[in-house]
């Protein structure tokens, strides 16, 4: 396997203990919001016509619906789980974690993300928020009775712009992706409003995720000037500044509209396999190429002989990836100086 990345964590400033170092190493214990007691942070109009009783897993329909009922205004409540480090800091950096699922499923994975990777990073000192975003389980053209594992995957695998059904499904997939972006941006605004309650520094927030979550992290990094028109909670100001984070990272994500990348956008750090069948490697290669051309930090560890995706890629490469991401976060969130410079590794040949 060819790995193209520099992942060595450089020296930390002399006034910081060289090891273990908070935000680099796991030095705290951490707690996670109980699974049955999430925080409802906002609400928005549902994008799923079948919302309220159906959860799709693969190609089957199960009447297991972890989503709450619509609120009195007919909006879909959105929830989050918090991973909190057991430290005494009051201005801690935060990570907004976003689950995968092809922008169609994954609702029930939010707690697992908070209690897994979110908790591991909380043990380093980051307050983690595993955030719900709207998904759509209705497949255009089938009456909503069944769907492929991922609508967006179907669109990608069956590209035919001349086919009216493909055009409909493409539009639906695009709407789902945009809804996830708007929801994540609204969650950032909510976290900033409630920063003091969670001991968070509103100027030190990153967004990370896997698969669809990593794609959304890229969208927050590169499309921050579009926040939509929905007000998710009382006094939601819909401001661009309030919706912005300071950095994005993830496994198996990219920016599908690289032409949207320009000067002033945010730094990112990704891992990706060349043989990824869900999010094409060509997309992340174009992303980092465009970002670097715009003068932005765009790190990419490429696994050129692998086809693993998202968590399955992260798991066997966790130590190397965590070294990459923690040094990236500590540098870009301005927690430490003196860390390794941004990597500029080439893409797979």
Give a nutshell description of this structure.
The protein is α/β, with parallel strands linked by helices.
Commentary on this structure:
The chain is built from nine helices and twelve strands. Strands 1, 2, 3, 6, 7, 8, 9, 10, 11 and 12 form a ten-stranded mixed beta sheet that branches. Strands 4-5 form a two-stranded antiparallel ribbon. The chain is 29% helix and 19% strand. α2 (151-157) packs across α3 and α3 (164-193) crosses α5 (212-222). The chain is of the alpha/beta class and 349 residues long. The protein has helices at residues 110-122, 151-157, 164-193, 195-198, 212-222, 240-243, 281-293, 311-314, 318-332; strands at 3-4, 30-32, 39-44, 55-57, 60-62, 76-85, 92-98, 127-131, 200-210, 247-251, 268-273, 298-303. The protein is globular.
Task: Please give the oligomerization state of what you see.
Answer: single chain
Specify the structural class. Answer: alpha/beta
Number of helices: 9
Major sheet attributes: 10 strands, mixed
As a whole number of angstroms, the C-alpha radius of gyration is: 19 Å
Task: State the end-to-end distance.
Answer: 13 Å
Shape: globular
Order of helices and strands: EEEEEEEHEHHHEHHEEHEHH
Approximate helicity band: 25-40%
* Residue fraction in strands: 15-25%
Mean pLDDT: 89
> What is the strand tally?
12
Low-confidence stretches: 1-15, 56-64, 140-148
């Amino acid at each position: 396997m060819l790995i193209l990345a520099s992942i060595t964590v450089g020296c930390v400033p002399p006034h910081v203990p060289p090891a273990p170092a908070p935000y680099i190493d796991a030095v705290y214990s951490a707690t996670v919001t109980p699974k049955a007691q999430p925080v409802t942070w906002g609400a928005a109009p549902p994008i799923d016509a079948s919302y309220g009783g159906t959860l799709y897993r693969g190609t089957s329909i199960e009447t297991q619906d972890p989503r709450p009922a619509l609120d009195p205004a007919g909006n879909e409540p959105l929830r989050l789980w918090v991973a909190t480090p057991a430290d005494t800091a009051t201005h801690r950096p935060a990570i907004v974690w976003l689950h995968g699922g092809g922008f169609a499923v994954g609702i029930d994975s939010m707690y697992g993300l908070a209690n897994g990777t979110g908790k591991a990073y909380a043990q380093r000192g980051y307050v983690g928020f595993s955030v719900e975003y709207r998904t759509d389980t209705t497949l255009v053209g089938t009456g909503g009775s069944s769907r492929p594992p991922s609508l967006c995957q179907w669109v990608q695998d069956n590209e035919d712009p001349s086919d009216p059904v493909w055009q409909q499904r493409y539009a639906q997939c695009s709407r789902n992706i945009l809804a996830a972006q708007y929801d994540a941006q609204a969650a950032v605004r909510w976290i900033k409003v409630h920063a003091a309650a969670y001991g968070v520094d509103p100027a030190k927030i990153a967004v990370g995720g896997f698969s669809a979550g990593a794609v959304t992290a890229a969208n927050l990094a590169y499309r921050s000037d579009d926040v939509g028109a929905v007000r998710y909670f009382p006094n939601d100001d819909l401001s661009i500044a309030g919706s912005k984070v300071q950095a994005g990272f993830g496994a198996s994500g990219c920016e599908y509209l690289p032409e949207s990348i320009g000067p002033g956008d945010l730094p990112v750090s990704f891992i990706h396999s060349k043989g990824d069948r869900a999010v094409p490697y060509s997309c992340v290669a174009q992303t980092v190429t465009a970002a670097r051309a715009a003068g932005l930090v765009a790190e990419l560890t490429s696994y050129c002989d692998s086809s693993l995706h998202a968590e399955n890629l992260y798991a066997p490469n966790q130590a190397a990836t965590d070294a990459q991401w923690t040094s990236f976060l500590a540098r870009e969130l301005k927690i430490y100086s003196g860390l390794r410079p941004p990597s500029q590794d080439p893409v797979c040949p």
